[in-house]
């Protein structure tokens, strides 16, 4: 299936050109130009600078945003057969991981030629050099390995057969830190220039070779990290470079673009979505890169979450937070019907999204107990995990193993617009029905689902696949310790109060992007490299134009930026 062409895409947030009349045109020159200072951009720039090249990094945002999305990320990383896994009793192998990756990706298109090759290369990296390379840079990992995307189908279905989600000690900021330090060191030595508030609107070319970029200088902004900044134009710029690397991220902050590329296999796009990325993840470089001759592929492959909640304390517009759910909550659709097997929390993100899009409603519900929320709710995002982000061991022990919900989770229970906390099921159902869209809920259906599930707890036997899975999950030390509550009746007053959470679709990652070869060279319509042009990170589908295929195993996005940014930075440096 052909992806839609970026050149016809809906316009990206148009720039008001208020001060243009007096605009001056600034000119810069470098060996390597890096567009975007997210994790991918920092890695590529650090590599090019380490190779002795002069580097310019441009980004449309104020400098407070260095690190891009990765700063906000949980810093979850996919490793294969790591020491952390082995210490937790997990026997992983490259063969098992390859099976999981390819069965999850479901590559099935001619356009998957380079994505498949990137997948093989990335698996080798995640099994080999990746961990040692990061350790060398001072990056550490939380010892308990998480089990994301558990699948629940057969051995040839999607999902992780074993836990592989390694949390960076220090979360996203801990991952960004060494690359930011390397870039700033090169800047201090005069070999690298960082140009904030430079918004690229064109790649410049000469005889089919990309020679740099041009665009608008935006007005200085004191917007805080993550908050939207103005698009007022105060000047123009042009940068000449022997190699240009596009690392401009995905499209998750641009709902028009998400809707436009939304694939029919996921039903119709929701009318209402919340936003899991800052507004600068706007896809503005897509038409610009296509206009320079690069091919964008797999735009219809995207990774949005189904456990989004509205942030009570938002930083960016429509700011939503993803619950990284443990497996115990009962998942109901908007009418109160339980989701089918194996669509349990944390099992199959896109399978659940596709199912929910058939229900005729944009939202769904978790129903759970206080006991479950305390053990199982983790919120994705560095700012939602002050213990891990701040490397604060006492806080970590208190919040993950102590009594009560972790502070950030409790804040949502107290202030979150999507949370209902009540003593009895009748009160809970009334509370759910009182939220916007809650009138779709059939209270009798909710009662039947919850009571029937609870009856399954009286026995060691069960016909309920989720209950059986809960029991088996606790055989894994990591789950038993911090991720899976001891199975209990949801309606047991001792486990209460009862909690319902209204869940929204939350936009996040673009799985497709600029097609690249294994050197990160952007490829044109005829399959040959566009001279002078490279791409990596989310803008390039984390490698090749879509290393994940249709679905991801998680922890593979920041990892994909590390790997593809490194490849492109090294290749660009070697070519000039
Ligand atoms: C809350 C959150 C949690 C996450 N958790 C995880 C996790 O645990 N594990 C994981 O693997 N992934 C996670 N991710 C995803 C991951 O962080 C991102 O996919 C990744 O960081 C993208 O990096 P990037 O360098 O490709 O792009 P970005 O970080 O998006 O950076 C792109 C930059 O390009 C700039 N730009 C765009 N267009 C232009 C233009 N025209 N001119 C100039 N500049 C431009 C933007 O301003 C931006 O600064 C998470 C993301 C979020 C938001």
List the helices and strands and how they pair.
Layout: E1 25-35, H1 39-50, E2 55-58, H2 68-72, E3 76-78, H3 83-87, H4 94-105, H5 113-127, H6 129-136, E4 165-167, H7 171-188, E5 192-195, E6 198-206, E7 209-218, E8 233-246, H8 255-261, E9 274-275, H9 285-291, E10 296-297, E11 302-310, E12 320-325, E13 330-333, H10 349-356, E14 364-369, H11 370-376, E15 377-379, H12 386-389, H13 393-401, H14 407-415, E16 419-422, H15 425-434, H16 443-455, H17 465-473, H18 477-483, E17 498-510, E18 513-514, E19 521-523, E20 529-535, H19 557-575
The protein binds flavin-adenine dinucleotide.
Which fold name fills CATH's third level, the topology of the largest domain? FAD/NAD(P)-binding domain
Q: Could you say which overall geometry the principal axes of the C-alpha atoms support?
A: globular
Structural class, by secondary structure, is alpha+beta
Output the number of helix runs: 19
Residue share in helices? 25-40%
- Return the domain count: 3
What is the class of the largest domain in the CATH system?
Alpha Beta
- Nearest-angstrom radius of gyration? 24 Å
CATH homologous group name of the largest domain: FAD/NAD(P)-binding domain
Beta strands, count? 20
> What is bound: which ligands?
flavin-adenine dinucleotide
Q: Mean of the pLDDT scores?
A: 95
The major pleated sheet works out as: 8 strands, mixed
């Amino acid at each position: 299936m052909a992806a839609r062409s970026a050149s016809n895409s809906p316009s990206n947030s148009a720039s008001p050109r208020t001060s243009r009349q007096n605009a001056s045109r600034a000119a810069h020159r470098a060996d390597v130009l890096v567009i975007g200072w997210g994790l991918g951009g920092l890695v590529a720039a650090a590599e090019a600078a380490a190779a002795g090249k002069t580097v310019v990094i441009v980004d449309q945002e104020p400098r407070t945003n260095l690190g891009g999305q990765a700063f906000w990320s949980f810093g979850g990383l996919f490793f294969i057969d790591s020491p952390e896994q082995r210490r937790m009793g997990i026997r992983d192998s490259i063969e098992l991981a390859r099976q999981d990756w390819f069965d999850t990706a479901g590559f099935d298109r001619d356009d998957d030629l380079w994505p498949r090759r990137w997948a093989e290369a990335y698996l080798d990296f995640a099994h080999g050099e990746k961990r040692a390379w990061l350790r060398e840079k001072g990056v550490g990992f939380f010892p308990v390995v998480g089990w994301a995307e558990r699948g629940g189908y057969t051995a040839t279905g999607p999902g992780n057969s074993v836990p592989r989600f390694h949390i960076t000690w220090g979360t996203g900021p801990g991952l960004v830190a060494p690359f930011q330090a390397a870039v700033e060191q090169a800047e201090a030595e005069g070999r690298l220039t960082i140009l904030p508030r430079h918004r690229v609107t064109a790649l410049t070319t000469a005889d089919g070779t990309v020679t740099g970029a041009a665009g608008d200088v935006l007005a200085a902004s004191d917007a805080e990290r993550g908050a939207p900044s103005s698009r007022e134009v105060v000047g123009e710029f042009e940068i000449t470079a022997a190699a240009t690397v596009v690392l401009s991220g995905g499209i998750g902050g641009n709902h028009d673009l998400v809707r436009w590329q939304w694939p029919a296999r996921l039903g119709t796009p929701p009318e209402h979505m919340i936003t899991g990325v800052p507004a600068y993840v706007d896809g503005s470089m897509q038409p610009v890169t296509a206009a320079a001759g690069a091919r964008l592929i797999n735009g219809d492959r995207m990774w949005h979450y189904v456990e989004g909640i509205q942030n009570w304390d938002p930083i960016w517009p429509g700011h939503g937070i993803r619950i990284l759910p443990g497996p115990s909550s009962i998942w109901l659709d908007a009418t109160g019907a339980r989701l089918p097997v194996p669509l349990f929390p944390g099992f199959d993100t896109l399978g659940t999204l596709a199912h929910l899009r058939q229900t005729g409603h944009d939202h769904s519900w978790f129903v759970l107990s206080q006991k479950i929320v305390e053990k199982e709710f983790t919120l994705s995002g560095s700012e939602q995990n002050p213990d891990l982000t701040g490397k604060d061991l006492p806080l970590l022990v208190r919040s993950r193993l102590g009594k009560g919900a972790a502070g950030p989770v409790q804040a949502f229970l107290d202030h979150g617009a999507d949370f209902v906390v009540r003593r009895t099921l009748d009160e809970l159902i009334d509370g759910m029905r009182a939220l916007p869209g809650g009138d779709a809920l059939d209270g009798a259906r909710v009662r039947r689902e919850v009571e029937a599930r609870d009856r399954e707890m009286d026995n060691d036997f069960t016909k309920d696949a989720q209950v059986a899975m809960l029991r088996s999950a606790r055989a894994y030390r990591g789950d038993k310790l911090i991720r899976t509550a001891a199975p209990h009746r949801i309606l047991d007053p001792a486990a209460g109060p009862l909690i319902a959470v209204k869940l929204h679709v939350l936009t996040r990652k673009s799985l497709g992007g600029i097609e690249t070869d294994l050197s990160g060279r952007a490829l044109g319509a005829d399959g040959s490299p566009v001279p002078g042009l490279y791409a990596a990170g989310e803008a390039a589908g984390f490698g090749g134009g879509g290393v994940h295929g249709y679905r991801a195993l998680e922890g593979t996005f920041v990892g994909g930026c590390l790997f593809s940014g490194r490849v492109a930075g090294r290749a660009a440096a070697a070519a000039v």
